[in-house]
């Protein structure tokens, strides 16, 4: 089979040696550097990351500065990505605004304050509960409220569509709920009220404004809500990102999720100064995504869906797989690595993926055995 | 059935899974178990007992009454036990539960209307072609879930009462307990036609087979008794459990026969169910664990299969190998890179089966003759497969007998290809092909240039060798797995094999601008390095000698480590037509995990040339060091007064700043101080770097050439160690409000929070020493925790990706699924290209 040199290399070659350089030289070099067919690239990728990960730091390490966020890094982050966890430990977003806004620090700061989620809890200074009267009293911190630009009316409005009796005084609210007849229910009511979002976007807990070299400002957040952020007009949708892979998959689709996996893994490795070729990371990302949804590398994800029963059984919880297989009358075809290793046969990868018919120690050749089996 | 050890077995193309039917169990059984006794008074197995000689043989000398083989060839045979009352198979309980609720309680049909079922068959086929068998399974799961929610049978229109499962195995129906017989009856009612919608198969998994009426009795060969030293037999855990089952079953049968009260029968039935359950799985939730008299948990069937030491991971995926050896390793720079020094003792013991041909027969005969010396042969195998040991008495006969076609098991010889391995085998480079070099001594010898891929050092590490027994394996080890062809790692495209420490110092000294050697010294050098050229000058520069190692058409340019450090133009490496024109050859060009020259050589000229280059270079470096000498001393760490003063000043300034910060306290002060300590460290490092006396400073030479150490090691040695951290913040825990009782309470200054002002050369004061040790310990703990976490990740990755391979069109496929259309988007092999790029 002849393989054409990818464009990017041709262009680089032309740039270096001129337009009429001998392209055959490049072709020869390309063919010499090609991967061998049959190569067990999955295992190579797994080993490349596995071996490198023994050198990763376990705990989160953060640069000692003030205006930075604490993001998970190192081995825990890699494990988290490969697990395709729904809830990642430190979700964060990089929000860029459209060009007309991003140059003004004031506008960016205003925007940042607008998206930061403020809950009622943030403006309450203390609260009181009275079981006898079935009411919760919230005492508000005037100063803080003012700094966020809220009034008691806003809180009242927020509570108006809940079936509650609300009574306002100077800087407190008395909320009565007739159904709250136990301490438990009262506490639940209080927690519900206190957790209500007054303004901002749900999930954005902290905002930090960063400055680029050419005096543009962008926002880093703790907490992530890609779907709602992208809906905002000022946001530059082409550059705004989150580090939450599942969220990205749900909002932007599988291709973007795949690219994000590659980006997040290579950045994590780069931060600790480990060299792993991008091909290995790409392969793992593709293996996680090629089915059309993001699947983790664990028994609930791609390993659990391996075609070979024995491969699944030899990974984790063997009995479950064996019993399901017998109930469903499954057939494990010995076309994979694990089952051939188990049965002491040549696995169909690498040199095992080609057959050489030879007389082996005077025994019947493999070729003959094959034929015999087929006849039967 | 007679099994011959030379029988040609067929290749396994697949395994079909199914549930054993009672008929099948009886059919494959060689004996019906009738007695709970194992042996009679004379110690012979009882007929119909659990050690019946028809179940297989575990004693040498006895003959199996089923197959007529001895212990070596008898595979063991199943028996069966007729159960007085049916019992559940504990592992099938969830499926039985599903089935009971998904089918009608009176007519046994699946609770889904006919109209849907008719469509379901085609939908199922469609899904299977579109999404594969897993899609079909998902669909069936949905069907069952739907059926379970239906309350009126669409066929007989009877109202449904749902069954409740009371764990572990009690089914409650209409407030009454369904026993195993009742359940089995209901399962029998499910029609064959409905089975496909329930994920079952009429020929391989009829639902009623999930309740045992006949129990298969495993052969004794899988549960052999062990004879203790006292001569007493100790039975296997499985046999213990089986005895319980048989005994309970007998009692149950007797009680039923004698018409005992229902309560007693129920009780015994429950007991039988318990024993059968623990026989299969001893550790199901809410089932009491069956124990030995001593309190030890019985290891039953499930325990044998699962876990790291279980059948799958312990026995079938991890195998023990013969023809292998293990010993401590030690370095030997004088053997070739691709060699491994094997002790004579090992070489004599571990053999390679060489086939006699007309060409080698004389040589093999001389090995046979020398059976008690070295090199020798220890066994011959005739074409009929008979193995004959060569001894004093047999040697003459064997010598006459051997002719082409015989296989001679001879000792290891120089040049044989073997596999060399060190655990943990984290990547494929942990096991590579080497050629044998038989040496005196008892350790395995390894060239120090090849330690990195194995991650080996010589503080007592042991390594394994495996002698290959077939020609195919030998060919792979000699070519694909050979260390020479694995110099560059597939992980990042950098050479893992190369020079380190002394070799870098040596070659840096050799390639210095002012290194000149007279003819006789050059002769010594070249002899030592094994280079054969004519000398026609009286003096040579070091660079000229280095050039003799290079291929004549090599053109290369690159930064050296010294150049990166000092920007000294002369240190920049330029090789034109195999001549080193300028530049210092150091870690950036030939170092491990670094060397750009090695990487270039490997990609352009191949492994053979690169290996030879590394071999010759390391010897050249060695003799250079021997000739020129290199020694460091404590004065290398001396910094000028001025620098020491500056470092002191940096600390004083920092201290003052901290004090003023503490006076204007705000909530971020701790973070600000932390940032400041980092700044202090950076300033100390820079001051130290500028203060290093570069004149005849070997430590500095080692740092700049990349042989060993860096400024990160130098500045705490010569300058100041700096802040000690614990969990990335300044140390603060200890006594109330202070680290140790030597400080004032709540003093947040630098020193009271673990700042070490001393350096390693002058030594730390006791408090500093204590705090420094605390910080170091954190690193050790971190390492201990990290190892299993990353090991588990590795295992998951390789389990998930093991079947991905390159197809002929360079796409990546897993079976018939395409994962990537072009490997890595361009099809390049990382280790064969320029670090994953194409540069020419």
Automatic annotation (TrEMBL), chain A:
One of its GO terms (cellular component) is DNA-directed RNA polymerase complex. InterPro entries: DNA-dir_RpoC_beta_prime, RNA_pol_Rpb1_5. It comes from Candidatus Acidifodinimicrobium mancum. It catalyses: RNA(n) + a ribonucleoside 5'-triphosphate = RNA(n+1) + diphosphate. The lineage of its organism: Archaea, Candidatus Parvarchaeota, Candidatus Acidifodinimicrobiaceae, Candidatus Acidifodinimicrobium. This is DNA-directed RNA polymerase. Pfam families: RNA_pol_Rpb1_5. Keywords: DNA-directed RNA polymerase, Nucleotidyltransferase, Transcription, Transferase. GO terms for biological process: DNA-templated transcription. GO terms for molecular function: DNA binding; DNA-directed RNA polymerase activity. Its EC number is 2.7.7.6. Residues 17-309 form the RNA polymerase Rpb1 domain. Signal peptide: none annotated.
From TrEMBL, chain B:
It comes from the Archaea. It catalyses: RNA(n) + a ribonucleoside 5'-triphosphate = RNA(n+1) + diphosphate. GO terms for cellular component: DNA-directed RNA polymerase complex. Keywords: DNA-directed RNA polymerase, Nucleotidyltransferase, Transcription, Transferase. SMART domains: RPOLA_N. The keyword Thylakoid does not apply. Its EC number is 2.7.7.6. GO terms for biological process: DNA-templated transcription. One of its GO terms (molecular function) is DNA binding. The keyword Transferase applies. Residues 208-511 form the RNA polymerase N-terminal domain. InterPro entries: DNA-dir_RpoC_beta_prime, RNA_pol_asu, RNA_pol_N, RNA_pol_Rpb1_1, RNA_pol_Rpb1_3, RNA_pol_Rpb1_3_sf, RNA_pol_Rpb1_4, RNA_pol_Rpb1_5. Pfam families: RNA_pol_Rpb1_1, RNA_pol_Rpb1_2, RNA_pol_Rpb1_3, RNA_pol_Rpb1_4, RNA_pol_Rpb1_5. NCBIfam families: PRK08566.1. DNA-dependent RNA polymerase catalyzes the transcription of DNA into RNA using the four ribonucleoside triphosphates as substrates. DNA-dependent RNA polymerase (RNAP) catalyzes the transcription of DNA into RNA using the four ribonucleoside triphosphates as substrates. Forms the clamp head domain. Belongs to the RNA polymerase beta' chain family. PANTHER family: DNA-DIRECTED RNA POLYMERASE (PTHR19376), DNA-DIRECTED RNA POLYMERASE III SUBUNIT RPC1 (PTHR19376:SF32). This is DNA-directed RNA polymerase subunit. It comes from Candidatus Acidifodinimicrobium mancum.
